[in-house]
Amino acid sequence: xxxxxxxxxxxxxxxxxxxxxxxxxxxxxxxSIYDIQDGTVGDGAIVTLRGVVVVxxxxxxxxxxxxxxxxxxxxxxxxxxxxxxxxxxSDLSVVAGLAVGDLVDVVDAEVxxxxxxxxxxxxxxxxxxxxxxxxxxxxxxxxxxGTAAVPAPVVVRPQDLAADPNEAEKWEGxxxxxxxxxxxxxxxxxxxxxxxKGIRVTGPFQVQSALTDLGDV
Length: 217
Description:
The chain has four helices and twelve strands, in the order βαβββαββββααββββ. It is mainly beta.
């Protein structure tokens, strides 16, 4: 048995044609991550996140440059659920000099419900956020404004996430921890990226090497 701590993330490539232009500036001056993740702020909105803490940076593998940020304070209703989000950029210079624990302002980024699925397929509902990755993309700038403690990972059960997509949605982009899980399927390649591996653990739930090598499991 083992314990795993990670951000609940999905792999995000950098070859989407829609990601080659920067969104127009002029978004809300301080948007809460909670409002983005619970759907209060919708797809396509231009937002600025102020005073959010960097909890993970993608410096591993062939697809790098994104980071994950979280609200420093718990929500009165949600707790730590809905508190984190991926900031997508494949430009390594944007995150150069940033470190986990930095407080940052993410300025004029676009809320995006990203999916690898074919939205023209009648069996695919790209408006269903349970089938998409909520992210903010291509910010005009990411400015360090201080440092803060990184929120502790929330202990959740992979069985609960696997059984209920609404439960999994609550923890998208949030630091979580699985305790006392068994590896049910060893490392295997995922797609053409040779650095991207996956294992299955109790749940069943897939854990990917998007942010770090999986080591000997």
